Amino acid sequence: MMNIRNAEIADLDALLVLSEQIGTLHFNNAPLVFKKPSAADKPFWLNVLNDESTLFLLAETEYQIVGFLTATITKNETIPFIVSCRICRIGTIIVDEKHRACGIGTKLMSACEQWAKSQEATQIRLEVMDFNQSAQQFYQQLGFQDQSHIMCRYLD
């Protein structure tokens, strides 16, 4: 049995285990963008947990936390040529390596979508790294489409 619920401060150590998994994946694939997971991650996640404007969901079995998702709502109020609507922006989604392809990510995304609708958001956006093909396929299966591409060129 799996349950989706709001994360709490008491969940921090278990969340750090998952954070290390996603951090290591990103560092190994894009070391010029991401730092290796470290003790500095703990205060970051503690701040996210304490931020009342951030949705912080976790997925748990009766034995352990197996995934989490963070999201916020933004609205363009400054750029005149961009539509001003409420947008749910997913910050992080991670499912434990041993529990992938079991529907956990889909359940987290569904709960996020329900929350976004309750916040009167009109869309959900997220950024996914180019190297993370499995995540891109997952989002495409959920109906996400490319909207833009972030490009980078490193300077000598």
Automatic annotation (TrEMBL):
Domain of life: Bacteria
Pfam families: Acetyltransf_1 (PF00583)
Domain N-acetyltransferase per the UniProt entry, residue ranges: 2-156
Signal peptide stretch: none
An example molecular function term from Gene Ontology annotations: acyltransferase activity, transferring groups other than amino-acyl groups
InterPro entries from the UniProt entry: Acyl_CoA_acyltransferase (IPR016181), GNAT_dom (IPR000182)
Assigned keywords, A-Z: Acyltransferase, Transferase
Name of the molecule in the record: Putative acetyltransferase
